[in-house]
Every structure is written in structure tokens, then in C-alpha cells.
Amino acid sequence: MSDISTERYTEEARRGIADPVLRKALAFLQDRFGRGTAEAYRRLPEGPELRLEAHRIRERAIDNLDVLLETLAERIRARGGHVFFAATAQDAVDYCLSVARRTGVRRVVKGKSMVTEEIGLNPALEAAGVEVVETDLGEYIIQLAGEKPSHIIAPAIHKTRHEVADLFVRKLGIARTTDPPELTQAARAALREKFLTADMGTSGVNMACAETGHITTVSNEGNIRMATTMPRVHVAFMGMERIVARLDEYEKVLRLLCRGASAQTMGTYVSFMGGPRRPGESDGPGEFHLVVIDNGRSRILADPRFREMLCCVRCAACLNVCPVYGKIGGHSYGFAYSGPVGAVVTPLLTGVNRAKDLCQGESLCGACKDACSMAIDLPRMLLLLREMLAYGDPAWGVTPAGRLDAWAYKGWSWLIRSRRVYEAALRLGALGQTLLPRSRGMIRRLPPPFHGWTLNRDLHPLARETFTERWRRTHTR
Amino acid sequence: MDTTDQITFMRRIRTALGHAPDIARKVPELFADAPSAEDLQLLERIRQRSVAERQALFAQLVEAGKPLRLNVTPVADEPAAARAVLGLIEAKSPEWGTRKSIAAWRHPVIDGLQLGPGLAARDIPLHLSDPIDPAADPACDQAERDRQRAALIESFIGVTSADFCMADTATLVMRNRPGQPRSVALVPSIHVAVIALDQLLADMKELFALLRWDERFRAEALTHYMSFISGPSKTADIEATMVHGAHGPREVHLFVISG
To answer: Which residue in the set A220, A270, A283 is minimally distant from B235, CB to CB?
Structure first.
């Protein structure tokens, strides 16, 4: 299993908010892609409603996952490919290690894939003495820097060109330049050498199509095409939910995926891979392996309240509109998936109690739902997770995280059910508030345990006279 | 050939979905055994497409290619295409070495260009990606693949055709086969593609309708590897600044024979 640091959410969020470079980068990213994606949905011939159709397509696929995965595996095997079904992260990693050992792999080039972050593939390969090279430019930068991705699509968004320049001088031995084209060229040269000498290439899977028996990847850089073409072995990793039944359904999902991810009508490279090199072909991998990963997904599948989450295609559109992600950045989420998608999926995959801060940190503003390329109701599931945390949920092994929520609502419910109690409480409040510090008619600070509420905002004081009292005074004779 | 990993995996999924864990399900309605009304409409639209409509698709392709930096040029016939390709080879210089050499597909359209003599006159080697003879013994097989790979790596321009081109997104569609390897459109710094006007399609819907239901394309379907290519390789990973030429070709030139 990879590093999980969801417990450090608050601490990391503070650090993110205090980082002016990160804030500027995120503001730029959200301004550009957030708006761009909304505009791209509007320009669809079918309009943004296509998202609802895609949602239905994905739901149908999830409801028939067993049939679709078996069809996919059968078609790939018929072409001479291998398919392995991994129940856990460890199973997936072990399978890849055994392929690497058997085929004598010394160097692996990786196409960008969040699921390999989830299962912790890199450290496992490195521990086995295999050199692992990330090849997406952003992933390469953060690998050289020894960091983790902070955005699903733009993993190095938190780094400035000056930081990249210093890094490349140190690690690649180039003359210092801060020009993005020159920096890109330096990485292009260094990575070309790696592509041409690697024994194994790995990739994720953006979406598979059961009917044809292909997995597909989308990239702009061409690194995934390189990693899956030049080495003699290709191992692809896919979360078990990343599949649709038919090509005409795939067409709709792909169009939305490209728009959600980067407001593009089509990624530069979309590759459909269905097996190893054929007899007579001069290139392509001699061995093709697909690893289908459960790693906690069947538990989500079993709960109808959360099954919808498996419709997600990880386009990251929700990150590009989320006001919380936009301030704290991806590292705060402590796992492969950040932003609203991470706030739902990480607790479900790694433990709701452990990752409780993620869903409690989101604002429930609903922007993610509007931006989602698959029209997933993320706020609904965020609320559901909070409810589980307030009251506990034995099925998921969730214990109530602090009784405050439950008590507060119990108290409130008692308070508002009796007119007399409610009015007495208001009077008491009106009296008590005179002790609180004020400025320009607003309450500046609440006493503990409510002081958190007034850290960044002032509170309107209770009116001297309630509405009911005023009504009585002005309307009764 | 179900294996233990697959059996337990499927059992878990079926249990989660509330089905009997050990009975493999059949849901034929998930797939389609005949074209839908929409598919038939698409096929008919492609069949009925007039020259004027093809020209309109071409105009759309040119426009869609602009923001992607895909250079689209119409050429009258094969000799004109050959002249254009040779002109490009002359004008451009290699990225990695100093010597110019060219890799090209074995493909009727590319063979028709007869680039050989023109390149020989300029003393530029042409590496054709001939299919590997499947009857040969595995050692020879490997040696021939290695030879072609080495030639490809030193080539600065790769010349291919394509199966189709989708106008609305300026996307080349290539189904890779023996003689038409994927790496020719990937490893060289510049990718040159030559297609005929009647290979233009409107969009992905038309493409998939053809691949799924048209007898001419159905048998081969998507092959083992099909790629969509929309312009040159690009990245925006450093401060979200767009840079062309990340790992794939830095330039893509498309010549459309409109004769």
C-alpha cells in the first residue's frame, strides 16, 4: 500500500493556504480549466445534458461489471494478452513484480496513472532493484524532486519554473534556464533515452471497452504511447470500474472525459490497446498484461448509497472548480486522489474515520456536481459520509467521530420543539451576548467551544426583539 | 480459461451486486448484434456524401487543426504530394543528429508517392517498415525488428498514411498492422501523413459506426492497436505554459490528396 497521510489534512491545508506560489498557481488553473470545461460542455451538440446520458451509461456498466470484465478479459486473451484480477493493492504489485522478475526487467518507464499511486507500485519496484522512471513531464518533475502529485491532471502545478530550473540543473546537469520550452526540451532528451532503453512500460487505463476488448489511454505528451510501444513488456493497471459495454457508449464518455480533464475536444493521443504485437509486426510489446484492481472497490459497489462513485472517470474537473481544493492544494488530501473526488473516494478506500477530515473539509457548495463530466452527485455522498461520522456506521466500521455533531443536533431538536423553551433560549442568548466583544455592531468572538466559528467571520447579534414579539407589538391591539 | 484470481474476483462482484456469486451471468442486451437506427443513418450519410460535402469537411478539418498546430495542406495528386513531402524533408533539419534519414510505412498511398528516387538523389536514406516475415525463425525475426527499430530511431521524419481522419477534432485514425507500425508516427521528430480526401469522416460517431457495422472494416475492427492522433505532442506541465513537442513529434503535417 502506498503512503497514506490523510490524518495530516489540517496541518497540510494550513501549509497550502500559507503558500502564495501554490495559491497563485491554483487560482490560474481553476480560472482557466474551470471556465473552459463549463464552456466546452455548453458547446457539445447534445449540450451539457450529455453528462446525464453518460451517467446512465456508466451506471449500466457498473451494474453489469462482472459481465463486462469477463468479456474484456476473454477478448484480450484471445489476442494473446494476459489478464490478472487483483483483489488487493498487494496482489497487483506482486503480479507486476513477478512479471518483471520473469522477464528480467531492469528499467521501467511509467505512463501517468493514479491507480499505480494508489497501489504504491513505484516503491515496490524500486525495492526490488528496478529503476522506475515517471515520464509524464509533471510526474517526472515531482519524481526528481522526491514529492507527490498535487493534481490528478497537472501533478506539478505547485512548482514554479524557477524551482524546475534549479531541479534540472541539479539532477540533469543542464545549464540553467527558466524558459518552459527549453526545460521541456531537456526533459524530452533525458526521457527519450529512458524510453528507448526500458524493458517494461506501465500505464493506467482511462476507459476500457468490453465489446471490442480494448483498453484505452489518453495523453497529450505522447509519453504513454512511448511507454506502451517501445519496451518489450507492457503492464496496464485499471481500477475495475473503468469500463463501458459498447463503442458507441465509449464515444460519449471519451468526449466528456477530454472536456472535463482539460476543456479539450480530444486529447492529442488516444490509444486503443487490445493485446501484444502480432506476428509480422515490427514494433509493440511482445508481452501485454492487464491488471484489473479491486482494492476496496467491491465494497463501494456493494453499498447502493455509494455505488454512484464508481461512475467516476478521474477527469479531475471537480478539482478545477472546488473552492476548498483551490485554496489548500492536493497534498492536503494525503492520498492519490485529491479534491472533491478524493474527499469521497479516499475515505471509502482507506477508512472513513481515518480520512474524516477530507469530507468534513469540503464546503458542500455543489460546484463539483455541476462540473462533473459524469454528473455524479458528490455533495450527496459528502453529506452521507458526514452523517456516518456523526452517528457511526457498523457496515463500514465507522465509529462516531466526536459526539459534538450528534449532541448539537439533539440539543437543537429539543430546543425548537417547544415554543416556550425556544423563546427562553433566545432571551437567554440575547442577554448572554452582551458579554461578548463587539465591533461595529457585530460579535467578534464566541467563547469555546464555538470560537472556531468566529475565527474568520463576525456574527450578527440576536435582535433585541424577536419577530414574534415585534409582530405582537405592531399587529395586536 | 478462468483462473482462481478471476473466479474469486467475479464472485465478489456478483455478491456486491446481489447476484448468485457462482453463476456467470449473460446479459445480451448490453451489447448489440445489429446496427441501431442511428448507426444506419450514419452509414447512409457517409455513403451519400458528395464531393462538395467532402470539401466542406476538409475546410472544417483545416480550421480544427489550427489551434492544435496541425498543418493541413491540400494537394492535387500523388506527384504533388510527393513534391510537397520532399520539400518538407529538404527544409527541415534533424533534432537529434546531423544526418537526415526518413522512415516510412509500407502502404499503397505511401508506395504511390515513390519517394525512393527523389531521396536517393539527395542522398537521404529511406527506411521502409516492411512486415516481418512470420515464417522466419524467431532469431531472424528479432534481428529484423532490431534493425528496423534502430533505423527508425535515427530517422527525423516519419511518413505514414492513416485509415481515416475525423474532421471535427482534426484527428488521424490509424489501425496498426504489419508494415504499418505505430512508432513511425511517434518516434521521429516530425510526422508527415498523406491521405486521400475520401478518407475524411465527420466525427467519432461516424468512425465507430463504420468500424462496428460496415462489412469493409468490421472484420479487422480496431486491430490490436488503434491510435487517434490530433496534432503534435504537447504539454502544459510547467506553470501551465503550452509547449509543443513533449515526447512525441513536435510537428505534424497532413497532406490531403483531393484530386
So the answer is: A220
Residues of A in contact with B148 (CB under 8 A): 282-283
> ipTM of this model?
0.97
A-interface mutation test, from B4, B13, B250, most A Cβ less than 10 A away: B13
How far is Cα B147 from Cα B143, in angstroms, rounded to an integer?
A: 6
**Domains of chain B, residue spans:** 37-233+247-257
CA distances from A452 to A405, A449, B48, B88, B162 (A): 14, 7, 69, 67, 62
Phi and psi at residue A195, to the nearest 5°: -60, -40
**pLDDT tens digit sequence for A379-427:** 999 999 999 998 899 999 999 987 777 788 889 999 999 989 998 888 8
Q: Is B184 exposed, middle or buried (0-12, 13-18, 19+ CB in 10 A)?
A: buried
Q: How far apart are CA B246 and CA B239, in angstroms?
A: 15
From the CB of residue A78, how many other CB atoms can be counted at a distance below 10 Å? 11
Q: Cβ separation of A85 and B186 shorter than 8 Å? A: no
Summarize pLDDT for A31-67 with one digit per residue, the tens. Answer: 999 999 999 999 999 999 999 999 999 999 999 999 9
Q: Do B178 and A28 touch (CB under 8 A)?
A: no
CATH 3.40.50.720, domain B37-233+247-257, yes or no: no
Contact A240 B187 (CB under 8 A): no
- For CA atoms B221, B222, B223, B228, the dihedral sign is positive
Q: Does B60 touch chain A (CB under 8 A)?
A: no
**Domains in chain A, CATH or no CATH each:** 6-298 (3.40.50.10420), 418-475 (no CATH)
Angle made by CA atoms A154, B226, A191, in degrees to the nearest 5:
45
Closest CA to A202 of A280, A131, A297, A152: A131
Distance CA A257, CA A254 (A): 5
Q: Record the pTM.
A: 0.93
A30: closest CA among A328, A348, A272?
A: A328
Q: What is the DSSP letter of A382?
A: H
Q: Which residue of B has its CA nearest to A44?
A: B168
